[in-house]
Amino acid sequence: MTRFLTQDSSIPPYMAFPRFLLDKDGLNETAKILYTILLDRARLSQKNDGWTDEKGHVFIFFPIKNLAEAMHKSEMSIKTALMALEKENLIVRKRQGAGFPNRIYVKYPPEYLTQMDRNLSVRQTENCPTDGKQTVSVTDRKLSSSNKEKNNIKRINSESKDNRTAYGSYRNVFLTTEELSALQSEVPHYQEYIEKLSRYMASSGKQYANHAATIRSWALQDHPAPVIRTYECKEDESL
Length: 239
Prior knowledge:
Blueprint: H1 29-47, E1 60-61, H2 64-71, H3 75-87, E2 91-94, E3 103-106, H4 118-126, H5 138-142, H6 145-159, E4 165-167, E5 173-175, H7 177-186, H8 190-204, H9 211-222
Antiparallel strand pairs: 1-3, 2-3, 4-5
Helix pairs in contact: 1-3, 2-3, 8-9
């Protein structure tokens, strides 16, 4: 049963529809809604570590099959809408190799920055590829010294992933060569746990500080170590 909205009502979850899309006559309704969904997912990636590339650009994973299910559209309609968004320079897709979903970079026209939340607009524009052009970070110019320090810490943490390789269908499980070798010897069916962790983080947006430790923890929960019983007794005791 539907209800009237009052001043005391809680507004249900929603996605913000960018106003500039109203002026995009070259996009049909499917493409506009698709862009809104991709932008909403990009907002989530901004808030979580592990979703930026080596240049600091935010990216997302959203397979065509999943998009089709989310929008109740055919996969062909989604492919057509994605191509239309690329033509309008609103997204960039980068291949990750056979069997892996494309990275999707969501872009935002800088001339429309005043039409949405200023803080998000600046960050979103800076996090998009600029076709080889180097952009000066407006955020860095306006950050206080405290925020700059936090930003530097985040950048250092991101750079620490350079010595790790991305695994899983969504390329979001990071392991060093030593960690992978240890998991191979310690965890039966370790590849299944890598895939499980990759799918869970991609679908929930949750992140873990140490992926190898998480896999070990999950494996231990599924296969607890057997309790070792001892039947030894002292000389003056009997069994």
